[in-house]
Amino acid sequence: MRRIPIRLRLTAAFAVVMTLVLAGVGVGTVAHFGAAFDEAIDANLAAHTRELATGSPQWTGPLVNEPDLAGDLDRLFSENVHFD
């Protein structure tokens, strides 16, 4: 029986170790992001709940204060697209 060359064994070992390291980093990143995302959502919901509990919500945000973006898109589309 022939032995497997050292280069092939080292390459296989390196590939296995790197696969485990990258998988571990990926799992850790996803877990950390999920926890941070949950905390941000909880904080945002708590802030909105406090705001609504005061009885005078201040309606602000991109959907309230922005101009009519749909109208702007329709205008840009009609100006730049020509069906000949």
3D structure, described in words:
It is a single chain. This protein is mainly alpha-helical. The protein has one domain (6-80). Helix content is 76%, strand content 0%. The model has no long low-confidence stretch (mean pLDDT 81).
Write the layout of secondary structure elements.
Elements lengths: L5 H48 L8 H4 L3 H12 L4
Helix content: over 70%
Quick one: biggest sheet? none
The Cα radius of gyration reads: 28 Å
Instruction: Give the DSSP E fraction (strand runs of 2 or more residues).
Output: under 5%
Task: Name the poorly predicted regions.
Answer: none
What letter string, H or E per element, gives the SSE order?
HHH
Structural class: mainly alpha
Shape: elongated
Average predicted confidence as pLDDT? 81
Task: Determine the number of helices (DSSP H or I, runs of at least 4 residues).
Answer: 3
Overall domain count: 1
Compute the separation of the termini in Å: 75 Å
Number of strands: 0
